[in-house]
Amino acid sequence: MEGKQILHGPVIRTADTTKRIMWDVVLALIPAWIAGVIFFGVQAVWIVILSTFTAVITEALILRYPFTLKTIFGDGSSVVTGLLLGLILPSTVPWWIPIIGSVFAIILGKLIYGGLGNNIFNPALVGRAILALGFTSHMVKYAAPFDAVTQATPLMVMRKFDWSLIWGNVGGCIGETSVIAILLGGLYLFYRGHIGWRIPLGCLVTAFATAWLWGLDPWMAVTAGGLLFAAVFMATDMVTSPVTPMGRLLFGCGCGFLTIFLRRFTAFPEGVTFAVLIMNAVVPLLDRLTVPVIFGASKSREQRFRTTAAVVVIIIIAGCVLAVINKNVPEHKMTAAEGVYLPLAETLGSEDYQLATIEDKVYYYVGDYEAPEKVGFIGSEQGYHGPIYFYLVVDGSGSILHLQILSHSDDPGLGSLVTRDTFLDQFIGLNYENDLTLGADVMGVTGATISSRAVISGINTELQRFITAFYGDNEKEEPIKWIDGVYAGQANSFGGIMQVEVTIGDGRIADVKILEHQDTVGISDEAILLIPERIVTANNPDVDAVAQATVSSKGIIAAVKDALSKAAVSDLESDAVSGKGAQ
Amino acid sequence: MLLKTFPRGGSDIPQRKEATKNKAIAVCPAPKRAVISVNQHIGTPCEPVVDVGDSVKIGQKIGESAAYISAPIHASVSGEVVGIEDYTVLDGTKARCIVIENDGLEQLYAGESSDYTKMSPQQIVLVIKDAGIVGMGGAGFPTHVKLSPAKPVDTVIINGAECEPYLTCDHRLMVQQPAAIIDGLKAMMKALGAKRGIIGIENNKPDAVKIMKNMADISADISVVPLKVKYPQGAEKQLIKAVLEREVPSGCLPAEVGCIVSNVHTAVSVTEAINQGIGLYQRVLTVSGSLIHDPRNVLVRIGTPIKQVIDFCGGMIKPPPVVIAGGPMTGKPIVDLSAPVVKCLSGILVLREDEIDFERNDPCIRCARCVDSCPIGLQPNFLADLCEKGLIETAEDYHIMDCIECGLCSFICPAYRGLCNSIKKGKTALKMKKSVG
Questions:
Q1: What ipTM is given for this predicted complex?
Q2: Taking a C-beta distance cutoff of 8 angstroms, is the pair B288, B309 a contact?
Q3: Using one digit for the tens of pLDDT, what is the confidence trace for A362-397?
Q4: B340-378: buried (b, 16+ CB within 10 Å) or exposed (e) per residue?
Q5: Which positions ≥6 away from A11 have C-beta within 8 Å?
Q6: Which residue is closest to B8 within chain A, CA to CA?
Q7: Residues B260-274: pLDDT tens digits?
Q8: Cα end-to-end distance, chain A, whole Å
Q9: In the prediction, which pLDDT does A475 show?
Q10: A81 to chain B nearest CA, in Å?
Q11: How many CB atoms lie within 10 A of CB A368?
Q12: Is the CB of B237 less than 8 angstroms away from the CB of A296?
């Protein structure tokens, strides 16, 4: 008789348990994963498995003793966290990135607050934020689909609406690129009642409107990058979103607005992570502000007024922020990285430009392909913290007409100084004859030496690629400087004489061998290893020295030059040889 | 056709009415001993008006109270009063009961048969009061009190929603005794001076809708409204909102918006009371669940032991984890199967272990399903949390007293939290606190 009193209340319950919901979310994420694997290859399988596995193990170790197959997965929420985190990583990250991310996501994102249901922030996004801040360079290397070459995401290369964005065969994170796959998962969750329309639609519509107000491409803003994935899977995380209907709508709108805001005004090409995290922090406030008016409430008018007033105030504040910021940001500062299209028509002087993909690189050109008038392209180079993306327009001869920095991860006030016009304007009119050098052709920016150097180096590389791409055949006709054969050379280096052997084949430097040197083992190793390779690749002895082994590097370079001087042809011979080569 | 329903919250829940919905009402034999509780209604318990040794007839008044909010009780068998003692009732507590030994003669009390058309409104209310009629859908609120509202009432709504899973007794009454329902409705309309009568029926009972419509067509002032199947469609305020588009203000009775709601069975009982002139002594209830051999709707004397009713339905297949009084959503476990049937018992459910889900109180994942489905617009997760922490004053600010205890929040919670129970406890604590200070 006693002890049975606990059974009051409903004795039947829904079949949709927490566990069921979690596994449904896992199911809904599968299409995005499959899309990622199709586009980015087997790498995408391993990263997601690693992150998921780590998340499950981390949570199990802390919470689920004794371990059995049943307890280890618990309520399934760690699988969801791991899966989500894996899917928002680029496929190019090293193997330890998903592991670190998952450990942080589970411990700092969830368990530290008291476990499932108590966490304030979306655990997967906590993991991603930590990775984005701690390992920036790894997190922004987006692989182009179908190969492992890093590529700018569509947000960096905005042009016209592109169906590939819908399928997802564009650069980006594993699970974020395919609109179709994400919508498939989202519709399933909606059908199962696990997500409502308020958060995803609120988020997407607001992002669309904000982008449109700011003159960005609104379709691009919602389909490219991680916004859609976040709107469907991240912002809708039950634990970290409001419980009231109005609260959820405002939450969604906030995520959408902040995403576009962050894309536009910060260095992060992808603002959605921090947008959702910021909104997560606002959830208790939203819940408070939007307590539903109860059935038959006598005070309903007052309450309704309060809610409406809160919404209106938020919209007005957002609108003011929009207006003020919009006014204070000069138009031409808009960059692709911040979610703006490339000013192709403006810089190329015509709407009528064409597109050529040469060796995985996209060139936008005006005029004849054989003799283009203007050519625009994006380049990148590793800066101080991460890659610097820039947009370059040159004329047919390779003279620089336009240069702008699209995005960088370098420090504000230091590396970021390279975005200044005073620095960039120096490049206008320079031609690619020899490599541009810091100090001679272009003055660097104080406080941003490394970034300056990176920009120059990147431009050199890109100009060279451009010349090869468009005038590749002509380049082969350049005078052959060396006669085939094997030549010895020597020079003074750190520890003594450095002896090298240079092989010339087909008029090019085919091989560089270090025969003998007395330099310190350990310190000089890297120079011995790298410099010959660099010289062969560049077909030129003037290559960058290896840091920490500058003297050895220079020694090798000098020795190679010595050898090459023996191989050099006279002017007469040169004509003869090149004539022969041209046939 | 877009069916009417209440706009806010609610949810689809399993119906599980197949087992009994097409089974005609069977008559359960009268018990050898009828045990009649003095407290079968909301309000003051009755005082016995018979003594041990007295001989009583079916429908004879055996207890009443001078208090306004109360309802008299009547003998359900003819025979001798053998005891007035404490007896275990449905909820497991002890209550004072009048025990009558059945003499098997089945003598009806000689009541004064009459016709509502020839009675004054006051007479109708008086007959209903004397018959001890209460809300038979489960609430047990004395009907005569409802029929004496403080504000004018223009509409009487008959609640034929029967939104609880398993239960089909109202359904069967609508199919088998439509005339009695219409008469009961008309009597109540007359008592209130109401111009309009509406019968709201959930659309999962198309046969009932059809039959009631045919009956209602005879009277110009009565209409039948089919309703969308959505729990808790049968909750008073939700039903009014659905059929009349009127919203009963928080803390008020339906009369505030000019209507009252009465259950189908109550209407039938009103008709019987008027026609026979004797007290309420039997009712129809549904005995169902997968552990019942022969689930059916049965007409049972008040005071029959639950066990006898179950045995009449073929008994139980195996010992159940729990037997439930009422529907699975708002019903309560029956602790002792010797407890007697009371006026407001609408069903007896015997469910298998795997059909029952106990409270598990997993962590709340803030899925907001309770908020979305609450028909009142409360935040059950938040309220339950406040109640568990003892912050009942704060809970009051968040309208805890508006909770209708439909149990949907607990049903829908994926973490199987006992939200409704916590809120009920909080409400009880708040009421106690108020009554004390």
A1: 0.89
A2: no
A3: 788 888 877 788 888 888 887 777 778 888 888 888
A4: bbbbbbbbbbbbeeebbbebeebbbbbbbbbbbbbbbbb
A5: B322, B324, B328, B331, B333, B351, B356, B357
A6: A295
A7: 999 999 999 999 999
A8: 106
A9: 47
A10: 14
A11: 10
A12: yes
Q: Determine how many CB atoms are found less than 10 A away from the CB of residue B307.
A: 17
For chain A, positions 250-309, list CB contacts with chain B under 8 A.
291-298
Residue of chain B with shortest Cα separation from A18: B414
Contact state of B357 with A243 under an 8 Å Cβ cutoff: no
Own/partner pairs for B205-213, CB < 8 Å, 24+ apart? B205/B21, B205/B160, B205/B162, B205/B171, B205/B174, B207/B175, B208/B160, B208/B171, B208/B174, B208/B175, B211/B174, B211/B175, B211/B178, B212/B160, B212/B174, B212/B178, B212/B181
pTM, to two decimals: 0.73
DSSP one-letter string for B302-329: TT-BHHHHHHHTT-BSS--S-EEES-TT
| Nearest residue of chain B to residue A296 (CA atoms) | B249
**Domains, chain B, ranges and CATH?**
26-111+279-354 (3.10.20.600), 116-276 (3.40.50.11540), 369-435 (no CATH)
Contacts of B434 (CB under 8 A, 6+ apart): none
Cβ-nearest to A1 among B92, B358, B415: B92
B14 touches chain A (CB under 8 A): yes
Residue B298, beta-bridge partner list: B26, B285
Amino acid identity, position B54: D
In eight-state DSSP terms, residue A233 is I
How many Å apart are CA B339 and CA A231, to the nearest integer?
Answer: 55
Measured from the Cβ of residue A407, the count of other Cβ atoms closer than 10 Å reads 24
Integer angstrom CA distances of residue B168 from A33, B286, B294, B313: 49, 6, 14, 15
Contact B171, B195 (CB under 8 A): no
Write out the two tokens for B14. Answer: 């399993």
Peptide bond between residue B232 and the one before it cis (omega within 30 degrees of 0): yes
Q: Which of B332, B357, B424 is nearest residue A12 as measured by Cβ atoms?
A: B357
